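Researcher: I've got a protein sequence and the SMILES for zinc ion. Could you write out the 3D structure of the bound complex as structure tokens? I'd like something to compare against our soaking experiments later this week.
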Amino acid sequence: MKMAVVRHTSINCLAISGLALLTLSLAPSPISPDLEEPHLFELPPPEVTGLVAPWSCGEEFTVSLGHHERSHQGPGQWAWDFATPKGTLLRAPAEGTIRMVRDDSLRHGCNPAYAWDANYVVLELGGGYEVLLLHLEAGSALVEPGQRVSVGQPLARVGDSGYVCGTHLHFQVQKSCSSWWCPSVPAAFSEDLRLEPGQVLRRTDCPTS
Ligand SMILES: [Zn+2]
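Model: Sure. Here is the predicted complex with zinc ion in place.
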């Protein structure tokens, strides 16, 4: 009998769906190490590839929440959360043009009522795709709408604005819409096409020492 396995837990969001509760109850079942670990869903091909980890060379951060987990439903279903400390300098994961910036919100809390209080940067990649970096620190934006940025260019710092249950970066590639909160799409960082919860992401475009 095939079992779904939840391999990691996270404190990012306390809203646990019925599906998650069901899989948690199944988790203790032993799985043969010879068998490929089953997934809760089939990963479709990424629509955007070649992204660079959005932080500085030498830094690496862990995926704390993956696709379709807990709060990552609906428009945010293809998001990743990263366990980035407050103040981490975020950099452009690809070249593009800044479409939207907000960094004036001081409101935050572990409740969906704060969902529209997040600070963010939206970076257009072209082809109707863009990157959303969410929960940024108030007053930390280093770019403005219309500005062209190159890979690795500083954008803003990690904060805890909006709906958060612990500081983290919410990162998603999305199809552009009339809001900053648009439907996410499957995407891939250059170094790991199947980046999953618990995995560490580091930049691969940095000089080796
Ligand atoms: Zn998230």
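Model: Helices lie at 18-26. The two ends are 48 Å apart (CA to CA).
Researcher: Great, I'll pass this along to the crystallography team.
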